[in-house]
Specification:
The complex is a heterodimer. Chain A contains no helices and 12 strands. By secondary structure, chain A is mainly β. In chain A, the strands form 3 sheets. In chain A, strands 2, 5, 6, 10, 11 and 12 form a 6-stranded mixed sheet that branches. Chain A has a 4-stranded antiparallel sheet with strand order 3-9-8-7, with no helix packed on it. The radius of gyration of chain A is 13 Å and the shape is globular. Chain B is an all-beta fold. In chain B, the strands form 2 sheets. In chain B, strands 2, 4, 5, 6, 9, 10 and 11 form a 7-stranded mixed sheet that branches. Chain B has a 4-stranded antiparallel sheet with strand order 1-3-8-7, with no helix packed on it. Classes of the chains: A mainly beta, B mainly beta. Chains A and B meet through strand 6, strand 10 and strand 11 of A and strand 4, strand 5, strand 9 and strand 10 of B.
Chain lengths: 114, 115
């Protein structure tokens, strides 16, 4: 079985300040981990993915995430938030033995203020 | 290169009617996944299909829901006798292969409203 827990349902930051969205995962197998972003009334866009290569993963729009096996974490960060980053972010796990079906976290709504 | 296409984008049905949601995968993709997103929740896996085969339907409700991916044409998610609780956004994703780590590309979703 596999699951993800997104520790914050809402995060609010000021424009230009760092972003940290937290995610912990649980998996019986070696996981692949993803972060997706969903803008209002839009589909999902892949930000980045980890598939057992480098533990620090760089994605689009300046986002990155670090896979920490000892902490079972895959937190998403960005050094400087932009207004256009306001959206909902989903941490997602897919694991060997589970096919390629994705298991989504409940999402973190990111608000960026001036 | 067109992305994953879903239609209709919005669908309104009365209780008891049937809803048919269509998904055309990206060119070159033969693996299709359907997910449902209830209000204020994350996406939940429903079913995984390859051409003419259902590979994993562990997330599908046992009654009223069915899915197919024929040799020709789009994948169809069919909901019979819809109820208010079926109101949700239904997302389709496709990938080039079913192996772990292959990226799934998502369509824009179909927002179903049952009145």
């Amino acid at each position: 079985a596999q699951s993800v827990t997104q520790l914050d349902s809402h995060v609010s930051v000021s424009e230009g300040t760092p972003v940290l969205l937290r995610c912990n995962y649980s998996s019986s197998y070696s996981p692949s981990l993803f972060w997706y972003v969903q803008h209002p009334n839009k589909g999902l866009q892949l930000l980045l993915k980890y598939t057992s290569a480098a533990t620090l993963v760089k994605g689009i729009n300046g986002f990155e995430a670090e896979f920490k096996k000892s902490e079972t974490s895959f937190h998403l960060t960005k050094p400087s938030a932009h207004m256009s980053d306001a959206a909902e972010y989903f941490c997602v796990v897919s694991a060997t033995g589970g096919g390629n079906k994705l298991t989504f976290g409940t999402g973190t709504q990111l608000k960026v203020e001036l | 290169n067109a992305g994953v296409m879903q239609n209709p984008r919005h669908l309104v049905r009365r209780r008891g009617q049937e809803a048919r949601l269509r998904c055309s995968p990206m060119k070159g993709h033969s693996h299709v996944y359907w997910y449902r997103q209830l209000p204020e929740e994350g996406l939940k896996f429903m079913v995984y299909l390859q051409k003419e085969n259902i590979i994993d339907e562990s997330g599908m409700p046992k009654e009223r829901f069915s899915a197919e991916f024929p040799k020709e044409g789009p994948s169809i998610l069919r909901i019979q006798q819809v109820v208010r609780g079926d109101s949700a956004a239904y997302f389709c994703a496709s990938s080039r292969a079913g192996d772990l780590g292959y990226e799934q590309y998502f369509g824009p979703g179909t927002r179903l409203t049952v009145t």
